[in-house]
Amino acid sequence: MRLKTPCAAPRRPGLALVLAGLFLLVALAARADRVTPRKEIAHLLGTIAAADCRFIRNGKTYDAQAAHEHIRKKYEYLQSRIRSAEDFIRYAATRSSMSGEPYRVACGDRVLPCADWLRAELARFRRLAGKADENL
Q1: pTM assigned to the model
Q2: Model confidence at 28, in pLDDT bands (50, 70, 90)?
Q3: In this structure, what is the dihedral angle of CA atoms 131, 83, 75, 106, given to the nearest 10 degrees?
Q4: What strand order describes the sheet that includes 54-57?
Q5: Where are the domains of the chain?
Protein backbone atom coordinates (compact mmCIF):
# COMPACT_ATOMS: atom_id res chain seq x y z
CA MET A 1 0.00 0.00 0.00
CA ARG A 2 1.33 3.43 -0.98
CA LEU A 3 0.92 6.34 1.39
CA LYS A 4 0.23 9.78 0.07
CA THR A 5 2.38 12.53 1.51
CA PRO A 6 0.83 15.93 1.92
CA CYS A 7 3.71 17.61 0.00
CA ALA A 8 3.59 15.41 -3.08
CA ALA A 9 2.27 17.12 -6.19
CA PRO A 10 -0.27 15.17 -8.22
CA ARG A 11 1.17 13.58 -11.38
CA ARG A 12 0.00 14.91 -14.71
CA PRO A 13 1.10 12.57 -17.50
CA GLY A 14 -0.56 14.80 -20.10
CA LEU A 15 1.57 17.80 -19.11
CA ALA A 16 4.79 16.11 -20.22
CA LEU A 17 3.21 15.30 -23.55
CA VAL A 18 2.04 18.89 -24.03
CA LEU A 19 5.50 20.24 -23.15
CA ALA A 20 7.17 17.81 -25.56
CA GLY A 21 4.75 18.92 -28.29
CA LEU A 22 5.51 22.58 -27.65
CA PHE A 23 9.24 21.90 -27.77
CA LEU A 24 8.81 20.11 -31.10
CA LEU A 25 6.80 23.02 -32.54
CA VAL A 26 9.46 25.54 -31.49
CA ALA A 27 12.21 23.36 -32.98
CA LEU A 28 10.31 23.00 -36.27
CA ALA A 29 9.64 26.74 -36.46
CA ALA A 30 13.33 27.48 -35.91
CA ARG A 31 14.27 24.98 -38.61
CA ALA A 32 11.81 26.54 -41.07
CA ASP A 33 13.64 29.87 -40.74
CA ARG A 34 17.01 28.28 -41.50
CA VAL A 35 18.74 29.13 -44.71
CA THR A 36 18.50 26.10 -46.98
CA PRO A 37 20.48 25.40 -50.16
CA ARG A 38 17.32 26.20 -52.13
CA LYS A 39 17.08 29.64 -50.46
CA GLU A 40 20.79 30.26 -51.07
CA ILE A 41 20.47 29.35 -54.75
CA ALA A 42 17.38 31.55 -55.11
CA HIS A 43 19.36 34.39 -53.53
CA LEU A 44 22.27 33.87 -55.95
CA LEU A 45 19.91 33.82 -58.94
CA GLY A 46 18.31 37.02 -57.63
CA THR A 47 21.74 38.58 -57.23
CA ILE A 48 22.57 37.78 -60.86
CA ALA A 49 19.25 39.23 -62.08
CA ALA A 50 19.62 42.45 -60.06
CA ALA A 51 23.32 43.04 -60.68
CA ASP A 52 24.45 46.22 -62.36
CA CYS A 53 27.07 44.18 -64.20
CA ARG A 54 27.73 42.63 -67.57
CA PHE A 55 28.17 38.89 -67.92
CA ILE A 56 30.61 37.44 -70.41
CA ARG A 57 29.93 33.99 -71.84
CA ASN A 58 31.92 32.53 -74.73
CA GLY A 59 33.31 35.96 -75.58
CA LYS A 60 29.91 37.62 -75.85
CA THR A 61 28.55 40.15 -73.34
CA TYR A 62 25.07 39.78 -71.82
CA ASP A 63 23.03 41.93 -69.47
CA ALA A 64 21.99 40.69 -66.04
CA GLN A 65 18.54 39.47 -67.16
CA ALA A 66 19.95 37.40 -70.00
CA ALA A 67 22.61 35.92 -67.72
CA HIS A 68 19.98 35.13 -65.10
CA GLU A 69 17.78 33.37 -67.68
CA HIS A 70 20.68 31.31 -69.02
CA ILE A 71 21.97 30.24 -65.60
CA ARG A 72 18.44 29.54 -64.30
CA LYS A 73 17.74 27.25 -67.27
CA LYS A 74 21.08 25.53 -66.81
CA TYR A 75 20.27 25.06 -63.11
CA GLU A 76 16.87 23.55 -63.93
CA TYR A 77 18.51 21.14 -66.36
CA LEU A 78 21.22 20.11 -63.83
CA GLN A 79 19.03 20.23 -60.71
CA SER A 80 19.34 16.50 -60.00
CA ARG A 81 23.12 16.91 -59.54
CA ILE A 82 22.89 20.03 -57.38
CA ARG A 83 22.66 19.53 -53.61
CA SER A 84 24.17 22.80 -52.36
CA ALA A 85 24.82 26.40 -53.35
CA GLU A 86 28.43 25.39 -54.01
CA ASP A 87 27.19 22.72 -56.45
CA PHE A 88 25.01 25.36 -58.12
CA ILE A 89 28.03 27.60 -58.62
CA ARG A 90 30.25 24.71 -59.76
CA TYR A 91 27.83 23.12 -62.24
CA ALA A 92 25.60 25.97 -63.45
CA ALA A 93 27.50 29.23 -63.07
CA THR A 94 31.22 28.57 -63.56
CA ARG A 95 31.83 27.79 -67.22
CA SER A 96 30.25 27.07 -70.54
CA SER A 97 29.23 23.44 -70.95
CA MET A 98 29.90 23.78 -74.69
CA SER A 99 33.33 25.46 -74.81
CA GLY A 100 34.57 25.01 -71.23
CA GLU A 101 35.36 28.73 -71.16
CA PRO A 102 34.83 30.34 -67.73
CA TYR A 103 31.95 32.75 -67.28
CA ARG A 104 33.10 36.22 -66.25
CA VAL A 105 31.39 39.19 -64.63
CA ALA A 106 32.26 42.81 -65.40
CA CYS A 107 31.14 45.25 -62.73
CA GLY A 108 32.47 48.72 -63.47
CA ASP A 109 36.18 48.40 -64.27
CA ARG A 110 36.50 45.07 -62.50
CA VAL A 111 36.26 41.78 -64.40
CA LEU A 112 36.39 38.52 -62.47
CA PRO A 113 35.30 34.91 -62.81
CA CYS A 114 31.59 34.51 -62.19
CA ALA A 115 32.29 31.63 -59.78
CA ASP A 116 34.48 33.87 -57.57
CA TRP A 117 31.87 36.65 -57.64
CA LEU A 118 29.09 34.24 -56.62
CA ARG A 119 31.21 32.58 -53.90
CA ALA A 120 31.86 36.00 -52.37
CA GLU A 121 28.13 36.79 -52.48
CA LEU A 122 27.28 33.42 -50.93
CA ALA A 123 29.74 34.05 -48.09
CA ARG A 124 28.22 37.52 -47.51
CA PHE A 125 24.69 36.09 -47.54
CA ARG A 126 25.62 33.38 -45.03
CA ARG A 127 27.30 35.92 -42.75
CA LEU A 128 24.18 38.07 -42.76
CA ALA A 129 21.93 35.04 -42.21
CA GLY A 130 24.10 34.02 -39.25
CA LYS A 131 23.81 37.50 -37.73
CA ALA A 132 20.03 37.40 -38.18
CA ASP A 133 19.94 34.05 -36.33
CA GLU A 134 21.97 35.56 -33.47
CA ASN A 135 19.41 38.35 -33.08
CA LEU A 136 16.50 35.93 -32.54
Answers
A1: 0.75
A2: very low
A3: 40
A4: 60-62, 54-57, 104-107, 110-113
A5: 37-134
